[in-house]
Design brief:
heterodimer; A: mainly alpha; two-stranded parallel ribbon; 2 strands; globular; B: D-Maltodextrin-Binding Protein, domain 2; D-Maltodextrin-Binding Protein, domain 2; 15% strand
């Protein structure tokens, strides 16, 4: 990144403008266009803010806001602790140690992400409630006085953490695998112990990667509607739905969304700030993989248990419950249509993952090639979509696209063509919405690998007169491939699970598995929802395993 | 490896877009369609739609989402909206759609005559399809039905720490509160809500089925729930859930005065319906005897058509007096209901 400002220059408006003129290039313009495109729905929602909140705003501030803030804070704190515990420990252990079933666990640890968190919530409630599997187990053991209530705030924090920790695991492991070897060797040579190496060296260096994952988790936590409303925990997001739908005041919902966005923005700034503090680029980009340590067999099994625990809680148990439900409902629910719907979901998810990753790459590199420093920060506006509830984004998408559709209808009518809605109700609107919503999911893993690329290589390529694009394809892309692939998987899985936005924007007769699962769950047919949920999980597993192999081979 | 990736992408594009385009073609070929925006995510509804398609040759195209989202969608689509019919699971949402000018009045003698007048809109903008009652489920071993009388009586000392009821975000609770406002006034409703909150066994959470389970588990003695969920529990694939439902008794409140609160799932024709005639035929079909039979047999709702008997599982609870409140009132009072819930701390 070029240094633009310096103390010598005076900060008069004139010199600023001059600088702006000197440093702006076409990449700055391109970045702005893309940011504008992606931020359009958010801007439309933002414009709504100027019309003021609805008349119940005071009512909400008085009766509900304290609870929303308190519950959301509680979730942020407890989920952070749990997610770091599960995510970082497992990432380090699979990267550093050899133990039984390590290879399998490496990808099993990603799988909790494949289950929508509200489904995990239902599965756990199903296990713990009266007549649930755990309850029956206690009854069989004559412990029927034991009843654990999981449907509360702490239970929600647990459920969200156990289904979201893989975000941290994925980014931390990518760091440990690709960056940690040299440092580890150096540390070993200096005679530093295993524990000290981890806490004093690895953890601080991995911080940017870990925090990037954590920010994603927290956005998702703040955005959760399904699990929170089922567990009876009122958060900002449940409040947004309440004021929008129950109180019939979209403008108040927009105000709550804006507050939520401010919180998310604070999280993003926090991430920026702490990454700046620990800025480093590794001297060698093509590191060898970390050398795994062989320990005593007994210790290996201890490590296995620690790593297996999050898999057990986040995948095996909920999936076990779902399989049991699927088994007893299969005769009524299953039909061939599910295969078709699975294919549709799969196709939609892959295409939108690629589109979203493409936009993320454009944003990251265009803003990098732009000489203006503030452009990089503007690019970050593009990731805000992840913080906004899907239903709100859907509305933000519909406002401009319907306006465009109406204009197109008028224009085409002049040529005697009766077109109807062209963008709305087609996959175009849906793909656009996914890109807006999930850009952050693609942006972060790519950005954190891109940061680690030593700038001297692309810089020297450019000094030799090779253009930005060519340098990117020849030199930078191969170096950030792991980041790009993780981005594709993560967006893919998110799209597979996505619900509110899909419900509103999806075309007729296109069904996704998440929609199917929701149809059952929303009518209290949680058991029947298990079959589409299992299909989501298995469809999502295919690329996870496939791409994980790719990562390891590299 | 590259080839594999390319294949996947090509395949994905094919399934995602290919399927879409073939559907579009079919649409224009047949011509006769009815576009249905529905909040009823029930499997049996699919069968009813199929029956309609077979009898009329009119293709039923469905968008499933919550009524709130569908209303919002129709509002934004405006004159271009493809929606012909809006179906919701409560009357409040229908009257809200009417208020926002999303529905139109229709002429249909079939609907006019078959549906009781308080269960349809005065301007013929929407019509009830099925009924559900908000009943009290009680633990047979701890509660004698004689101890129960009305919703209003639930605030008495007897039920301190004994009442289970779900969150106030739930539309069925909002509608119940709206009916209490209509009957007892805002002040009375507020006092009632305070009393219920004070008597709650736990902070509201979970679904109606969860409230029933909590009663049997002994967390409380009575639960305020929708009738058709009990029917579903009694027919659950999970034997444990069936056993649970069998342990509770059903009580219809307010039999001595206005009757038990009922709500309807209903339908209306969209203001800008491109296929208005088909839409009317479709709604008429939904209250035909065969459709009504499916509604009650497979989904345990009370049929709106008097000539159709409710399914055995719910028929055994006996006939009951229904609150004949004009259901338009539920929509009118909905917002007030939510405000009262918040003020009294009913989460």
């Amino acid at each position: 990144m070029k240094q633009v400002g310096s103390n010598k220059e005076t900060f008069s408006l004139k010199s600023r403008l001059k600088r702006l003129k000197r440093d702006s290039n076409r990449w700055s313009i391109f970045t702005l266009i893309i940011v504008l495109f992606l931020a359009l729905p958010i801007i439309f929602i933002g414009v709504e803010l100027f019309s003021g909140p609805g008349e119940t705003w005071n009512h909400i501030v008085q009766h509900l806001l304290p609870e929303y803030i308190w519950n959301s804070l509680y979730l942020v704190v407890f989920c952070s602790v749990l997610v770091l515990l599960f995510g970082v420990s497992s990432a380090w252990l699979v990267s550093r140690f050899e133990f039984p079933f390590r290879k399998q666990l490496e990808w099993l640890l990603i799988l909790p992400l494949a289950i929508p968190s509200y489904i995990v919530g239902y599965a756990y409630a199903g296990m713990f409630d009266y007549g649930g599997s755990l309850d029956l187990f206690f009854r069989a053991m004559n412990f029927d006085f034991i009843r654990i209530d999981i449907m509360n705030r702490a239970g929600l924090a647990f459920v969200l953490s156990i289904s979201l920790f893989p975000y941290v695991y994925v980014s931390a492991r990518a760091f440990f695998l690709n960056q940690a070897n040299n440092l580890l060797e150096a540390s070993k040579m200096l005679g530093v112990g295993e524990r000290k190496t981890f806490f004093k060296l690895m953890l601080p260096l991995a911080r940017p990667a870990i925090v990037a994952g954590l920010v994603l988790v927290l956005m998702e936590v703040l955005n959760d509607y399904g699990a929170a409303s089922y567990y009876g925990v009122n958060t900002f997001t449940t409040g947004i739905f309440r004021s929008w739908f129950s109180l019939e005041e979209p403008e108040t919902a927009v105000y709550l969304s804006a507050l939520l966005i401010i919180i998310i923005f604070a999280l993003i700034l926090f991430e920026k700030w702490q990454v700046r503090k620990v800025k480093f680029t590794s001297s060698k980009t093509n590191n060898t993989h970390i050398q795994r340590k062989e320990t005593k067999k007994s210790i290996q099994w201890v490590i296995f248990s620690v790593v297996f625990l999050p898999v057990l809680l986040g995948f095996v148990l909920p999936v076990g419950q779902l399989i049991y439900w699927a088994f007893i409902t299969a005769s009524t629910v299953f039909d061939l249509e599910f295969i078709l719907i699975s294919l549709q979901s799969f196709g939609i998810a892959i295409v939108s993952a690629l589109i979203t990753v493409f936009f993320a790459l454009l944003l990251i590199y265009f803003s990098k090639w732009s000489a203006l420093r503030f452009i990089k920060n503007i690019a970050r506006i593009g990731v805000l979509g992840y913080a906004i509830p899907g239903a709100v984004i859907a509305i933000g998408i519909m406002i401009p696209t319907i306006a465009l559709d109406k204009w197109l209808i008028d224009v085409l009518a002049q040529f005697g063509i009766d077109s109807g809605l062209i963008i709305n109700g087609t996959l175009i609107a849906l793909f656009y919405a996914y890109a807006v919503r999930f850009l952050a999911v693609a942006y972060n893993p790519i950005d954190s690998t891109a940061l680690k690329v030593d700038n001297s290589i692309p810089d020297s390529s450019k000094v030799l007169g090779v253009g930005n694009l060519k340098t990117f394809f020849k030199i930078e892309f191969p170096l950030i491939k792991t980041g790009v692939f993780s981005a594709v998987i993560l967006v893919f899985i998110d799209v597979m699970k996505e619900l509110p936005l899909t419900l509103i924007l999806k075309p007729y007769h296109i069904d996704t598995l998440a929609v199917k699962a929701f149809e059952y769950a929303s009518d209290e047919m949680v058991m029947e929802a298990s079959i589409p949920s299992l299909f989501i999980i298995f469809t999502a597993m295919i690329p996870v395993i496939f791409l994980n192999k790719l990562l390891i081979k590299k | 490896m590259k080839r594999v990736l390319v294949t996947i992408v090509a395949f994905a594009l094919f399934t995602a877009c290919g399927d879409n385009s073939t559907k579009e073609v079919k649409e224009t070929e047949t011509g006769q369609v009815v576009n249905v925006y529905t909040h009823r995510h029930y499997e049996p509804d699919q069968n009813i739609f199929k029956m309609f398609e077979e009898q009329t040759g009119i293709k039923v195209k469905v968008i499933n989402a919550s009524a709130d989202e569908l209303i919002q969608k129709m509002k934004m689509e405006g004159e271009q909206s493809p929606a012909d019919v809006l179906i919701t699971v409560d009357a409040g949402r229908l009257s809200r759609a009417k208020e926002q000018g999303l529905l139109q009045s229709i002429q249909s003698e079939v609907l006019e005559n078959a549906i009781p007048s308080h269960l349809q809109d005065v301007d013929n903008q929407w019509f009830g399809l099925t009924k559900r009652a908000r009943i009290i489920a009680y633990a047979k071993d701890r509660v004698k039905p004689e101890e129960l009388t009305s919703y209003e009586d639930l605030v008495s000392e007897r039920w301190k720490g004994k009442i289970l009821v779900r969150s106030s975000s739930n539309i069925y609770n909002q509608s119940l509160m709206a009916s209490i406002i209509a009957n007892d006034g805002e002040e009375g409703a507020k006092k009632w809500a305070e009393g219920i909150v004070a008597n709650m066994a736990r902070s509201p959470k979970g679904s109606d089925r969860d409230q029933v389970k909590a009663v049997v588990a002994g967390e409380g003695d009575i639960a305020i729930v929708n009738s058709y969920y009990i029917g579903k529990m009694l027919n659950s694939p999970d034997a444990e859930e069936v056993a649970t439902a069998q342990k509770i008794g059903i009580f219809f409140p307010n039999q001595e005065d206005r009757g038990t609160h009922i709500n309807v799932s209903g339908a209306g024709v969209a203001k800008y319906a491109p296929n208005k005639e088909n839409a009317i035929r479709f709604i008429e079909f939904l209250i035909s005897e065969e459709a009504q039979t499916v509604f009650t047999n497979a989904n345990f709702e009370y049929p709106i058509l008097e000539s159709v008997e409710p399914v055995e599982d719910i028929k055994v609870w006996g006939d009951f007096k229904e609150d004949n409140l004009e259901l338009d009132k539920l929509g009118e009072n909905n917002k007030k209901a939510v405000l009262i819930f918040d003020e009294t701390g009913w989460k």
